[in-house]
Amino acid sequence: MIEILLALVLIVFLNGFEIVGFYDACQFTFHPQGKKNEDGANKYGVMNDNKMIFWRVKYISQKKLGMFWSKPVCSCVSCMGSLHGLIPYTLFCLYYNPILLFLFPLYACVVGAMAKLIQSKMY
Fold it and tell me: How many beta carbons lie within 10 A of that of residue 115, not counting itself?
């Protein structure tokens, strides 16, 4: 029982750090005046000097899914726990006890809170 709880705590921490890292890697800013292809902006109006490596993920998800539905993908650290926690928690449950899958909503909330806590301590 203790090893399951320790493994779960470790997964929560690692998943929280993954969420914060992915959130930071998806950041970009638009040109202040909305210009495209000038003043350091690319053809989408995204500033070239401060876009991160996965900026296209956020841009495309906001374009295709909208602002609200792109939150679990890459726009909201607290919301990302529900999507980014799905695979690690499922693998954990399949290894230890599949009945724990019913506690995924609780895990998603804990991971979201952990990611928010990590992010607040970083900035």
Answer: 29
**Which pTM value belongs to this model?**
0.91
> What pLDDT, in 10s, does the model give residues 30-62?
999 989 998 899 999 999 999 999 999 999 999
Q: Where is 54: in which H helix or E strand?
A: none
**DSSP assigned state of 30:** B
Look at the block and give the residue holding tokens 């909503």.
105
Query: Would you kindly state where each structural domain of the chain is located, as residue ranges?
Result: 2-122
Which of 30, 60, 26 is CA-nearest to residue 48? 30
Kindly state the tokens that stand for 17.
């750090």
> Which residue's structure tokens are 């979201």?
112
CA 54 to chain centre: 12
